[in-house]
Design a protein that fits this description.
Blueprint: H1 3-11, H2 15-21, E1 23-26, H3 46-51, E2 54-56, H4 61-74, E3 82-85, H5 98-103, H6 107-123, E4 128-129, H7 153-168, E5 178-184, H8 203-219, E6 224-227, E7 231-232, E8 235-236, H9 241-251, E9 257-259, H10 268-271, H11 277-287, E10 292-293, H12 297-307, H13 313-329, H14 342-348, H15 352-365, E11 367-371, E12 384-387, H16 412-420, E13 425-428, H17 454-467, E14 470-476, H18 495-507, E15 511-516, H19 524-529, E16 532-535, H20 543-551, E17 617-619, E18 623-624, E19 628-629, E20 634-643, E21 649-659, E22 670-679, E23 684-692, E24 698-699, E25 705-706, E26 710-717, E27 725-730
Parallel strand pairs: 1-2, 1-10, 2-3, 3-4, 4-5, 5-6, 6-9, 12-13, 12-14, 14-15, 15-16, 19-27
Antiparallel strand pairs: 7-8, 11-16, 17-20, 18-20, 20-23, 21-22, 21-26, 24-25, 26-27
The structure holds 1-deoxynojirimycin.
Length: 731
């Protein structure tokens, strides 16, 4: 439809109809919908139900076909519904959690994963996914770090843009869905790492560290944006006119639909900025929130607000037009079923190609933290005891793979047996996944506690460990311990798992820990005991085969930490891009009046960017094509990388830049690029990056986004702690 036709349609609609376009109802109001937030009491009239233009979390080709058909027949203008849901790390074929996808440092793989998810989801009738989440995260206590791609603005931007490209294609291509960027803005900065908590950020930090990843997703053409639950500068985002109108729309150029997060409009009352639901509706629409997700505020109060002159009808028109434009962009007026297709749904979901893609992504996301005496890869001749609660767990998809089913997961034990045969393998869980004293309630279901004789389970595991050459200890946090509403003050492993580790280490010195988690955990105790640690995250449907191939060297780990593993929870929040302080710690413990902890190191246990593989690499010193950079010109920074080990391998080379002196304090280092190179043993290759003046810009003392002349240090190395550097001057 042409815009003029849309406007004509809008002008023929009643106020109630227009408001209906601004409403998204939770799917549980229809049979079969999933609940991913508090289920409110909507008490809708038949007319309100007939006019509400969108559903959340309803999927399935035949169900949505029927719903769409019946809805359109009853709607006065036969305007189609738009169906949205959280397709976060895959639809039915689950990919690794987003934090793990960040560890691939491979936007191409992440884009492919989003495309697979879009194909399955669009066949099942979905039009929009609430992804990517481009929130910056610095605090591993926050459960939702699993849903972000990590602690770095540049990496997050690359990954968010890749996801948008993967989901949307050009939106008319078959198998695409629209993307909704979230949570605007700053949600990841929750104080104390506690979900839904307030955020305190300086405007400069917001602009410099938090907004760029959202911007990258918008520049990639992201169709929608979701507000965040938090306050920023004491203003809840859903009521923040400056943030939504001045920053998001005017500065960042976003012209699409802005939706609230689940019940966030109604929660303006809890925030204490609205005294009732009508006041909340007014605040939100005036801030620029087009759609009200899962709250009764717009549907119940907006009509009266407009009729009594409290809210301008223009705001309703603007919002409704944007929703109609989105429906039009998706082609719903021409074909309200879009790519919904029962046959495609059957054929595509969990097909071999999708499973393979998920496996490849999982393999690229594993991070080898340490590997003493080349404990990994395993050899087929070794007797290996596979112990721990994750050895045969089906819960590998993470709490945000809401449409993935555990029965479809290929677990580690099954994959190892299929790959290696039973001869040199033995298996025992050793302990439950969660301490029996802990009662976890997931947002979908209560966590089932295994009924286990704890002592007998431990003894069985210890005797297998004794008889084995090596032990693979599959430990980790339960999937319901990460994700939304899963913040934790203690991020060590459950006590029962640490006891298992102790007992196993007493009888076998070759312990390899495979760590399943949705956040960087505090593993400093474990780190001292294990010979090797492979972080598997929550690897998705194909987690088992991806791991069995990696453990036996059919694939090599190439992932790099997208978020540092802290030494202990007391270091949080933590990020390598911290500012220079007036009293930096130079590693000399005899100095007292410097910025340091007395009882633990300043630096993390494993830094951002870290990850080993089954071979080793040597870096040459950094070479610069010029030591002067003029505005409008560029220079090249390069390094020669040599494979010094005995296996072929892939190295991810990272480019960091430090601004030596600025008008405001500058980060010690910032990631500005990354690339990978695959080399045979003994082979060397050059990796180069182009550096331009634009890459050196920041928000200066006058709040201007600009660069300042002076000296810059370029680092090229394997992680954020590299000191392999050269310097140039911007003139
Ligand atoms: C609340 C979450 O914060 C958001 O990320 C999600 O998309 C919505 N619920 C919808 O499920």
């Amino acid at each position: 439809m042409h815009t003029s036709e849309l406007k004509k349609l809008l002008s023929s609609m009643s106020l109630e109809e227009k408001i209906g376009q601004l409403v998204q109802l939770p799917g549980n109001l229809q049979q079969g919908g999933l609940i991913t937030g508090p289920a409110g009491n909507f008490d809708l009239t038949e007319e309100e139900l007939r006019l509400s233009g969108s559903y959340l979390s309803m999927v399935g080709a035949s169900q949505l076909r029927q719903l769409q058909t019946e809805y359109m027949a009853r709607h006065p203008h036969h305007i189609p519904l738009i169906f949205m849901a959280d397709v976060i790390n895959g639809y039915r074929t689950a990919f690794p959690i987003p934090l793990a996808q960040g560890c691939t440092f491979r936007p191409d793989l992440v884009e492919e994963g989003a495309r697979v998810a879009a194909k399955e989801a669009s066949a099942a009738g979905l039009h929009v996914t609430f992804s990517p989440m481009a929130d910056m995260v610095h605090d591993a206590r926050w459960g939702r770090v699993m849903e972000s791609t990590g602690e770095d603005a540049y990496l997050n931007g690359c990954m968010a843009a890749a996801m948008v490209r993967g989901y949307q294609g050009n939106l008319t291509d078959r198998g695409t869905i629209a993307a909704c960027l979230k949570h605007f803005a700053g949600y990841g900065g929750a104080e104390g790492g506690r979900d839904y908590n307030s955020v305190e950020l300086s405007c400069r930090t917001l602009r410099e560290e938090y907004l760029p990843a959202y911007k990258a997703a918008l520049d990639a053409g992201c169709a929608m944006v979701m507000t965040s639950f938090n306050t920023l500068d004491r203003i809840p985002s859903t009521a923040n006119r400056w943030l939504m109108r001045d920053v998001l729309r005017d500065e960042m150029g976003f012209a699409g639909v802005l939706i609230s997060d689940w019940a966030a409009v109604a929660e303006l009352i809890n925030h204490g900025v609205a005294e009732d639901a009508a006041a909340a509706a007014k605040l939100a629409i005036e801030a620029g929130v087009d759609m009200d997700m899962a709250s009764p505020c717009y549907i119940k109060y907006m009509k009266k607000l407009v009729e009594e002159g409290t809210v301008s009808p223009d705001l309703i028109d603007q919002g409704a037009l944007r929703v109609l434009e989105l429906k039009n962009l998706l082609g719903l007026f021409e074909n309200p079923y879009r790519f919904l297709d029962e046959a495609d749904e059957e054929k595509l979901i969990l097909c071999e190609e999708h499973r393979l893609s998920a496996r490849r992504c999982a393999e690229a996301s594993f991070v080898l933290l340490k590997n003493e005496q080349q404990a990994l890869p395993l050899s087929s001749q070794e007797k290996v005891a596979v112990i721990g609660p994750y050895m045969n767990a089906q819960t590998l998809c993470g709490s945000w793979a809401v449409f993935a089913e555990e029965k479809d997961v290929y677990n580690l034990q099954d994959a190892l047996l299929r790959q290696q045969g039973p001869e040199n393998l033995s298996f025992a869980p050793g302990c439950p996944m969660v301490d029996p004293s802990e009662q976890l309630v997931g947002f979908k279901c209560p966590v089932a506690q295994e009924q286990m004789d704890l002592e007998a389970a431990l003894q069985e595991a210890v005797s297998l460990a004794k008889a084995a050459d090596k032990v693979v200890l599959a430990l980790g946090e339960h999937k319901e311990c990460t994700g939304e509403a899963a913040s934790r003050g203690d991020i060590t492993l459950p006590a029962c798992q640490l006891r298992l580790l102790d007992e196993v280490c007493k009888v076998n010195e070759n312990v390899i820990v495979v760590l399943f988690c949705g956040r960087p955990l505090d593993i400093h105790a474990l780190n001292e005991r294990a010979k090797a640690i492979l972080v598997a995250w929550l690897p998705g449907t194909e987690g088992g085969p991806a791991l069995s191939r990696t453990l036996y060297g059919h694939a090599a780990p190439t992932g790099r930490l997208s978020m540092a593993f802290p030494y202990a929870v007391g270091q949080l929040p933590l990020h390598y891009t911290h500012l220079k302080t007036g009293r930096p710690y130079n590693g000399n413990p005899a100095l007292r009046f410097v910025s340091r902890y007395q009882d633990m190191p300043n630096h993390p246990l494993y830094p951002f960017g870290h990850g080993l593989t089954y071979t080793s690499f040597r870096y040459s010193p950094v070479q610069l094509s010029n030591t002067l950079l003029k505005k409008g010109e560029s220079l090249t920074a390069s390094v020669i990388v040599e494979n010094t080990g005995s296996r072929p391998g892939t190295e991810t080379v990272q480019l960091y830049i430090r601004d030596q002196v600025g008008s405001v304090a500058r980060p010690v280092k910032e990631l500005k690029g990354f690339d990978y190179i695959t080399l045979r043993p003994g082979e060397e290759g050059t990796v180069s990056f182009t550096i331009t003046e634009e890459m050196l810009r920041f928000w200066n003392i006058d709040m201007k986004y600009t660069s300042e002349p002076g000296e810059f240090i370029v680092f090229l190395g394997p992680d954020s702690q590299t000191e392999n550097a050269a310097s140039f001057t911007l003139c």
